[in-house]
């Protein structure tokens, strides 16, 4: 848990979801991100002290971290692997390794339907739970303030499309304010551009940042397909209209023109954003529909089904 990415936030929410019903321990064989360590108790795996997860249900969140030698000592009664990165070859290697060191079947949970279909492995699709008490709509309208378009993500190149700087300039030239949380990686292309504010990831609280937007505009690098798009769910939960490039895992949640919008080109994106700017009632209706979508996705009944899945075969992690 070195970086605060989607896997870490999923881990946090699963801990909070399962904790009231089971003995749950979060383990890491790397030094955790201090921000994450402040939010939940994390135990370091230390082979020389035999401090490691021994029994119960072992949930491996993500496939991109190598499994340490401790894995050969663990004796889990059940293994669940959460696949949330588009890397089929890596998934196959992790499954082969897991099959070699344990005699219990490995169950795979997928972050989105397309991700499951892309590898041809059976398993349930589970969205990554988000905290609806943290991500909620603003209580007041943004009337009289500059129309603001923005997005947030980790501050890495894969999270940004090559055409984003040009698109942001066009939005700014049309008189809109553009704010990118996690956008310092774009400073070479956009430094000094009036109307575009690039912020380091984490310098503003995510929920408050989203509530300061009139529109959430999102796409990623052409070579990276977003597995699920947790940040899109967070924006929808905040009642902010989302305008997203077609093709990501979030597309499974968005009904174009009802609870969000999908676009295929810069011109399409600009036209949608311009319409949202001109029609406050449309912004309100799209934002409200997005909030309802996320409330249904993470209703008490839906969360209970997720919780039941993990607790049905063991009850510990």
Helix-strand layout with pairing:
Layout: H1 6-18, E1 26-28, H2 34-37, E2 42-44, E3 57-61, E4 78-83, H3 88-101, E5 106-110, H4 113-119, E6 148-152, H5 164-173, E7 177-181, H6 187-190, E8 196-199, H7 206-211, E9 215-218, H8 230-237, E10 242-245, E11 261-263, H9 266-278, H10 280-297, H11 300-311
Helix pairs in contact: 8-10
Written overview of the protein:
- This protein has 317 residues and is α/β, with parallel strands linked by helices.
- The protein has 2 domains: 6-129 and 299-311, Rossmann fold, CATH 3.40.50; 148-297, Rossmann fold (3-Layer(aba) Sandwich), CATH 3.40.50.2000.
- It has 11 helices and 11 strands.
- The strands form 3 sheets. A 6-stranded parallel sheet has the order 8-7-6-9-10-11, with helices on both faces.
- Helix 3 (88-101) links the parallel strand 4 (78-83) and strand 5.
- The longest helix has 18 residues, at 280-297.
Widest sheet, order of strands: 8-7-6-9-10-11
Query: Tally the helices: what do you get?
Result: 11
Low-confidence stretches: none
- The geometry reads as elongated
Rg (C-alpha, Å): 20 Å
What is the fourth-level CATH superfamily of the largest domain?
Glycogen Phosphorylase B
CATH architectural arrangement of the largest domain: 3-Layer(aba) Sandwich
Helical coverage, percent range: 25-40%
Distance between the termini: 16 Å
Mean pLDDT: 91
Number of extended strands: 11
CATH overall fold name of the largest domain: Rossmann fold
Percent of residues in beta strands?
A: 5-15%
Look at the structure and give the CATH class of the largest domain: Alpha Beta
């Amino acid at each position: 848990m070195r970086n605060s990415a989607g896997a870490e936030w999923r881990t946090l929410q699963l801990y909070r979801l399962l904790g009231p019903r089971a003995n749950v321990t979060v383990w890491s064989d790397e030094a955790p991100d201090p921000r994450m360590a402040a939010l939940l108790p994390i135990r370091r795996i230390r082979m020389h002290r035999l401090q490691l997860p021994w029994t119960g249900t072992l949930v491996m969140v993500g496939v991109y971290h190598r499994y340490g030698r401790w894995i050969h000592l663990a004796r889990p009664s059940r293994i669940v692997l959460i696949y949330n990165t588009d890397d089929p070859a890596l998934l196959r290697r992790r499954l082969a390794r897991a099959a070699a060191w344990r005699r219990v079947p490995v169950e795979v949970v997928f972050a989105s339907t397309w991700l499951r279909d892309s590898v041809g492995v059976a398993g349930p699709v589970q969205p990554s739970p988000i905290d609806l008490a943290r991500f909620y709509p603003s209580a007041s309208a943004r009337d009289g303030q500059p129309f603001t378009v923005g997005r947030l993500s980790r501050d890495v190149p894969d999270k940004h499309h090559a055409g984003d700087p040009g698109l942001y300039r066009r939005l700014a030239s049309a008189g809109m304010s553009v704010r990118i949380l996690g956008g310092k990686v774009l400073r070479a292309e956009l430094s000094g551009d009036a109307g575009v504010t690039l912020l380091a990831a984490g310098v503003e609280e995510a929920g408050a940042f989203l509530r300061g937007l009139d529109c959430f505009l999102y796409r990623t690098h052409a070579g990276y397909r977003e597995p699920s798009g947790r940040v899109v769910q967070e924006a929808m939960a905040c009642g902010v209209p989302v305008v997203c490039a077609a093709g990501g895992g979030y597309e499974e949640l968005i009904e174009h023109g009802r609870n969000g919008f999908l676009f295929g080109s810069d011109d399409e994106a600009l036209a949608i954003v311009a319409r949202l700017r001109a029609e406050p009632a449309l912004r309100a209706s799209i934002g409200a529909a997005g909030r309802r979508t996320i409330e249904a996705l993470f209703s008490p009944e839906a969360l209970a089904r997720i919780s039941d899945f993990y607790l049905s075969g063991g009850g510990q992690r």
